[in-house]
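(Deposited chain)
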Amino acid sequence: DLPLEDCLRKHAIGLHAMGVQTSKVPLPDHSIKWYRTPLDPKVNKALHATSDVQGALQTLGFLGNLGLSAGLALHFNAVGLVWLTVCFTVLYGMQANFLINGMHELGHGHVFRTKFFNGFFLRVISFLGWLHPDMFFSSHLRHHRYTQNEPYDQEAPMPVLPTVKDLLGFAFVNVKGFVEIFDQTWRAAFGRYPTGHLGWRAVWEDVCYPPSKPEARSPAQLWAQIMLAGHAAIFVWSVVSGNYLVSVLINFGPFYGGGLFWLCNSTQHIGLHHGTADNPVADFRLSTRTFRLGNPVVGMWYWHMNWHIEHHMYAAVPCYNLKALHDEIQHDLPPTPSSFAEMWSIIRDVVKKQAIDPTYVQPVVLPKPKKV
């Protein structure tokens, strides 16, 4: 085995390429024959086409929106307009909570046509969000291959019973979230496993990063060290220079004002079907939820992940083409909730029943497949 220092130097070259550096632990010798709505070959090709222009509109639109909120907060703070400072500081935090969705999409590598742009903006967004793309995708590739089928996918085990307390923890100041992310980053930086990354069970972390393969951890370790050093430098500069708001935005932005993010992101699999190796759920329409977002700005913040059945069914389709994919396969999908209110009304009823009977799942009526 290579010494740790040699491993870090080796993988530092990989980080210059910016893209995700997963643990590369082999996947299980187990496959699921997933149902996917058939697509016309020409339509399929068009939907999978990536574009630097559309990628830039999504990514620079997201970062530009984030930067505008930060810039206005700093400007109004400088001229002493407290309430406007507070408003734009809160607006920054509301959007910063969605950085994880940007990391997710860029990590898939299908936002830009040019590979470097995916990797570069992946690192920018991950830094701003205290995110670990190398660790995340060491699990997430399994999540897509075995979605909601344990033990091969334990990224988001079900059932989960969300509470108003959970929502309020994100909506105001998420102290618990910051403490957890800082602890996870510190552990990853110093090679102390399990890190508890994103609430993973220790057994799942051992699957993604086996103790017998410490060299697999080095890319994640290097990135955690870069994040700690970078955020520490920003914090120290902010305090020494008296620009405290810079630290509030950059160091702590993803840890307040996250109620809207929680309401969006918690919907993806909650209350739906989940299977096992012996009895798998092999249809994304049963285990994954799609819903309509009426606000295009929030849709952009969420990187269009409200079309989540579509994302799982055809994971290489760029996020900006998911609505078109939805329109193409809508005839083969369960009824799509048309609003937040409708969607959360459904989830609330399911969760109430799951609190009494943990085996209960949302009934999903599937249309008969349409021949292409």
